[in-house]
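Render this sequence as a predicted structure.
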Amino acid sequence: MNCSQVIARLRSHSNPKNVAGMARFGINPDKTFGVSIPVLRKLAKEIGKNHALAAELWKSGIHEAKVLAGMVDDPALVTEKQMDSWVKGFDSWDVCDQVCMNLFARTKFASKKVFEWSKHKEEYVKRAAFALIACIAWQDKQNKCKDYNKFLQIIKRESNDERNFVKKAVNWALRQIGKKDKEHNKMAIATAKQILKLDSRAAKWIANDAIRELESKAAKLS
């Protein structure tokens, strides 16, 4: 399938009710068809990996096409320039999280972009840094990543950001590190308790929510 054919397929699944529902959850309704993630995953499987097509889909600016681009692109072919370009096009938390989960976290530049993007002022660029941490922690089953201590330092440093889409991603990153295993659980709880002492409503929410989950029996046994 070429780009036009893919977009036609996406348009055929348009659902105005879904678009309205997405908007209520803070998802940008502009250029959005309301196609569900399961449908996008099925289409991505049908397409297979296609780096060139991913670039065209991204350029279309269509919400679902951007999510699909992250699903069909090949992480091995993604460059830093592409990542820096795409991250500027994040205009919804779901596009940010899906692209980070399905593509960016699987590239060799993932940790480097965490350190760079966590310093940015743009809301979705900054969110992307913490979405990457969460996705790296979740996907790294064999603990090959050696940056978790540094990630926790970044989480603490940025935990005073009051913006909703940033603070929720910071919290997500902290919890995901803490759910890796017992060692990382202790590290994350210790960081959360340090964050709790900061004079910031966002920091206190991030810390309390993380501690509540990470000190649960389910998390302790992971």
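Summary. The chain has a mean pLDDT of 94. The chain has two domains: 1-86, 109-222.
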